[in-house]
């Protein structure tokens, strides 16, 4: 579904990603691991067309999208939940969810299944997004992305700053989306145990390059932890 090859990304004169290759197959959950500052978020922004990518290829469902604008990528079925969630604090929960329909050209309605996944949101529809806890805001951000009925869901650090009970809830939702819906998911994460629990395949990034990869069921956690702790 997603095929990234020989990707380079930069900010002005600084090269952040160098010859990155990463694939995500349909129905798969893939986790990109790495310490802070190694280029993981830049990689996700590259997929969405939010940073300059002078070299390489980004194919989605067999179509080259590296030169396409962000809105085109969203309308092709890529939903992105950025680090920090980026919900609108002055809008209600319901209004935030309705914004998810913009990827569909503003058409359609909120699928009730998002409330099955995140029941707490249905009890807070009129509450302002800024009044929610960090964990509730993360659930809202993921639900807003799902409103667009994506083919590929991208999550940047979904466990960051979240209490353990909500981390478990988000893990449950990810596994349910894969198993019941067949949704393809790409996650950037530092929390190794979470990544191992929810993903099928992993990559480890260091200094803008992929340094390790493999099936999660075969992962050597001690070796990977060394890469994350350098």
Topology:
Blueprint: E1 2-11, E2 14-24, E3 29-33, H1 40-48, E4 52-60, E5 63-64, H2 70-75, E6 78-81, H3 93-99, H4 113-117, H5 119-122, H6 134-147, E7 152-156, H7 164-181, E8 184-189, H8 192-198, E9 201-206, E10 209-215, H9 221-229
Parallel strand pairs: 3-8, 3-9, 6-7, 7-8
Antiparallel strand pairs: 1-2, 1-4, 4-5, 9-10
Helix pairs in contact: 3-6
Could you give a short description of this structure?
This protein has 230 residues and is α/β, with parallel strands linked by helices. Helices cover 34% and strands 28% of the residues.
| Main sheet makeup | 6 strands, mixed
Q: For the record, what CATH class applies? A: Alpha Beta
The number of E-state strands comes to 10
Hey, roughly how much beta strand do the residues contain? 25-35%
Number of domains: 1
What are its keywords?
230 residues; alpha/beta; Rossmann fold; 6-stranded mixed β-sheet; 4-stranded antiparallel β-sheet; 9 helices; nucleotide-binding
Describe the structure.
The chain is α/β, with parallel strands linked by helices and 230 residues long. The chain has a single domain, classed as 3-Layer(aba) Sandwich (Rossmann fold). Helices cover 34% and strands 28% of the residues. The protein is built from nine helices and ten strands. The chain has helices at 40-48, 70-75, 93-99, 113-117, 119-122, 134-147, 164-181, 192-198, 221-229; strands at 2-11, 14-24, 29-33, 52-60, 63-64, 78-81, 152-156, 184-189, 201-206, 209-215. The strands form two sheets. The protein has a six-stranded mixed sheet, sandwiched between helices. Strand 1 and strand 2 form a beta hairpin. The longest helix has 18 residues, at 164-181. It is globular. It starts with a strand and ends with a helix. The model has no long low-confidence stretch (mean pLDDT 93). This is High-affinity branched-chain amino acid transport ATP-binding protein LivF. It comes from Desulfosporosinus acididurans. One of its GO terms (biological process) is L-amino acid transport. InterPro entries: AAA+_ATPase (IPR003593), ABC_transporter-like_ATP-bd (IPR003439), ABC_transptr_urea_ATP-bd_UrtE (IPR017780), BCAA_Transport_ATP-bd_LivF (IPR052156), P-loop_NTPase (IPR027417). Keywords: Amino-acid transport, ATP-binding, Nucleotide-binding, Transport.
